[in-house]
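Why does residue order matter? Because the sequence determines the fold. Keep that principle in mind as you read this record.
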Amino acid sequence: MRRLRDILARAGCAAALATVLGSCATGPVVESPGVSLRNVEVTSLNFSRQSFLLGFDVTNPNPFPLPVTRVRYGVELDGQQFAGGESAGRFTVPALGDGTFAISVELDLLKTAPRILEIVRSGGGRDIPYALEGDFGVDIPLVHSLPFRKTGEIRLAAHGR
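Structure:
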């Protein structure tokens, strides 16, 4: 009887240890931030090159700051791929707070997306649907990246407006 009790006690300890180790292996619980495209500003528009400044708002739902080390993103405007890539910027979004960041993008829309060029040229007076998807690399132990996804509408802004 004593031997059975020892075996059951060891099994219980092993199960508890497996539960604790399993929760540690998945890392801390970190909620993904909310990200939205605040503005798309046309900074330069000529025949061979177009420059844009993409402004983003980010909301941190976590009770601790999010130290962002990189942003990987993809942006569609009116159903067309507009911009994407990775930016190695460092910023921190405060705990339960909001922040902003911007990414400068240079494109050759004549070669890559004539439909987007049409949207840029005519988009100043109307709301344009957008889709945003990507992830943040963060400096938090055991957390590799935090994904984000958002759809909405935005109005393009010309330089100086």
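The chain has three helices and nine strands.
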